[in-house]
Amino acid sequence: MQNEYEIKKEMCEIGKRVYNRGMVAANDGNFSVKLNDNEFLCTPTGVSKGFMTPEYICKVDAEGNVLQANKGFRPSSEIKMHMRVYKERPDVNAVVHAHPLYATTFAICGIPLTQPIMPEAVIALGCVPIAKYGTPSTMEIPDAVSEHLQYFDAVLLENHGALAYSDSLLNAYHKMESVEFYARLLYQSKMLGEPQEFNKEQMDKLYEIRRKMGLSGKHPANVCPNAKAGKPSCHSCGGACSQSAPEATADADLVASITKKVMDQLGL
Ligand SMILES: [Zn+2]
């Protein structure tokens, strides 16, 4: 398990990758890591994320209030967006926000990343919707993002950029890389001709691969077993997908075994 200082160092390393890959310009972008339910580390506002050292990193509580920040550093102005993700997705331990060129281009044109065109994008991302535009640093962005949190692990922010979140900082960053690579592929294939999409059979096989890999998160592959029986899938049953489905099964098994014991004792 990493200690707090090691996490800060990792945040600086991820900052370098985000900056060096051109996912942000100048001082843009921000990311955060959950330490526990009331302590979160976040990048400061007004500095280039490519040149941070551990003492740049700030600590906030679940409301985004500063718990610790060295002189001259303040938490990101977008911290409310991060806090909304942690609040509504307890499985998330890290959030990354950036402005990658191609993903942001799609966000500006109002085109979500939904065409299934390559195996890795289907397996890693599923679909990436667009959260409607909100003024930076207001509650408009957290509110817009909130609509998609139960169904997706990455969203485009209309006329702004992209947001990715996962169970670790590295995974959240990789998700952002995948979003950008997918957007770039989609853009270039549209330039060259009409991208060929996978059919349903091919999609089902890719979803099966994701399930076998045991990847967590909200993804079309993680629909509850009801979907296969023609009942509402996770996208229409309030997000009760992979996390709740096995529990539901476990509960049903428990009820069945208790019922059997009671019946046995009653001699029925
Ligand atoms: Zn931004």
TrEMBL record:
Residues 9-187 form the Class II aldolase/adducin N-terminal domain. It comes from the Bacteria. InterPro entries: Aldolase_class_II_sugar_metab, Aldolase_II/adducin_N. Keywords: Lyase, Metal-binding. The keyword Magnesium does not apply. Pfam families: Aldolase_II (PF00596). Signal peptide: none annotated. This is Class II aldolase/adducin family protein.
